[in-house]
């Protein structure tokens, strides 16, 4: 968990630099925060605004890959255009002479929801105190609000999972990673599914399923994919995100995933055909209200027409609790 930098008077008074270097040369103190298969995230200081920012850019080995460049630009522009309290603000998009395409975002502090669930699963008393069922439900609802806004703008996230829901130190909730989002009216590009370490995580308190960038044909992360994503349906809509939220909702309640199999194929088979045990029965030790079972069951219907037909409908159902 990271902390917010302290604002000090000496950092607000200096005059503007006489010349601002172009591109990434403007930023100082670059430090790697995370690295994936194709891109990296760095924190940096912007001497013009006096704030710490996050920079996402491609790794040297993928910097000149046209497909990865296009995907990063799409993620940057989708994120920039989704101006909502539960999405991360984008400050700038550019191309550096040496580093290639990048975008600058607000640097957020806190931890992702998956880390919260891991701590609860381990019996961490502070996490159990800070994140009771009502709080966990409110976090999911906040992520749903970002999705409802995105759906109204013609964007389907397609990779909703606890790891992509950021819980800030001051109560804020941010839905991250729009890198495999579907934008209506644009070709799907047959974007890759994210590889997994599916067989190595039998329970929630082991290593998180990897988010990855190559090797398959379907976008998303296997444990949270909808049945229509699995079969490669190109006409998926917001109801696919409703299903993924249903998986997340089950997990934040039961502290267990509903569909995990021993292999990816078994997991896909479970998603498409297995009827799951209600979360209140699966994990009775957590005191899950039985009213949530019906909400989860409807969100996880195999056929889209039987689910909540919009994210707003799902939000309303949770709010009624």
How would you explain this protein's 3D organization?
This protein is of the alpha+beta class. It has two domains: 9-106, Phosphorylase Kinase, domain 1; 110-319, Transferase(Phosphotransferase) domain 1 (Transferase(Phosphotransferase), domain 1). Helices cover 32% and strands 16% of the residues. It is built from ten helices and ten strands. A five-stranded antiparallel sheet has the order 1-2-3-5-4, with helices on one face. A hairpin with a 4-residue loop joins strand 8 and strand 9 (173-175). Helix 6 runs antiparallel to helix 9.
Helices and strands in order, then pairings?
Blueprint: E1 28-35, E2 39-46, E3 51-58, H1 66-81, E4 90-96, E5 100-106, E6 110-112, H2 113-121, H3 125-130, H4 133-152, E7 155-156, E8 165-168, E9 173-175, E10 182-183, H5 227-230, H6 238-254, H7 264-273, H8 279-282, H9 291-299, H10 311-319
Antiparallel strand pairs: 1-2, 2-3, 3-5, 4-5, 6-8, 7-10, 8-9
Helix pairs in contact: 4-6, 4-10, 6-9
């Amino acid at each position: 968990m990271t902390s917010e930098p302290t604002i000090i008077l000496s950092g607000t008074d200096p005059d503007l630099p006489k010349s601002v270097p172009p591109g990434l040369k403007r930023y100082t103190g670059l430090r790697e925060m995370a690295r994936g298969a194709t891109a990296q995230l760095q924190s940096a200081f912007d001497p013009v605004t006096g704030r710490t920012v996050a920079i996402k850019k491609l790794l040297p080995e993928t910097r000149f890959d046209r497909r990865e460049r296009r995907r990063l630009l799409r993620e940057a522009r989708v994120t920039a255009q989704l101006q909502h309290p539960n999405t991360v603000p984008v400050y700038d998009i550019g191309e550096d002479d040496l580093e290639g395409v990048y975008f600058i975002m607000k640097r957020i502090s806190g931890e992702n929801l998956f880390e919260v669930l891991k701590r609860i699963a381990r019996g961490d008393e502070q996490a159990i105190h800070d994140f009771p069922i009502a709080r966990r439900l409110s976090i999911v609802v906040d992520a749903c609000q970002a999705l409802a806004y995105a759906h109204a703008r013609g964007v389907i996230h397609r990779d909703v999972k606890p790891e992509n829901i950021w819980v800030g130190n001051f109560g804020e909730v941010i839905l991250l990673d729009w890198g495999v989002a579907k934008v209506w009216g644009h070709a799907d590009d047959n974007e890759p599914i994210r590889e997994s370490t599916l067989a190595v995580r039998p329970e929630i308190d082991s290593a998180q399923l990897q988010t990855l960038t190559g090797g398959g044909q379907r976008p998303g992360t296997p444990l949270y994919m909808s049945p229509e994503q699995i079969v490669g349906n190109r006409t998926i809509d917001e109801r696919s995100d409703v299903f993924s939220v249903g998986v997340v909702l089950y997990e934040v309640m039961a502290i267990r995933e509903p569909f995990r199999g021993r292999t990816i194929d078994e997991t896909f088979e479970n998603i498409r055909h297995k009827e799951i045990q209600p979360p209140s029965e699966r994990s009775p030790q957590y005191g899950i209200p039985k009213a949530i079972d019906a909400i989860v069951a409807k969100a996880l219907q195999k056929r889209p027409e039987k689910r909540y037909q919009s994210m707003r409908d799902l939000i309303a159902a949770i709010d009624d609790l």
